[in-house]
Fold this protein.
Amino acid sequence: MPLKLKSGFLTSSGDEGRLLMDSGTGDEVVVVSYNALEAIADPPRADEFRLQQYIEAFSQIASNKFDEKQFGRAGHIRVTSEDVRNWRVSA
């Protein structure tokens, strides 16, 4: 079942983004890495604007990883620069 985006924001440290997504049975926290934010478009930037500009792409990547049960060590979905590169190839 695909995740549905509820909210997205950059952490106060600016180190990474967070997406709050609905799984149908509860909320999932998705971590968007600094490198993923930089890798999504040129020129590389990792800020709130870039997160919001590509929030649908990050959401799709997260939903695909959720469906494939690719959870990180902390139990959250983590979107990385490698995920972004794979998404570009498949898009």
In short: The mean pLDDT is 94. The chain is about 40% helix and 25% strand. The first helix runs from residue 34 to 39. The CA atoms of residues 2 and 55 lie 15 Å apart.
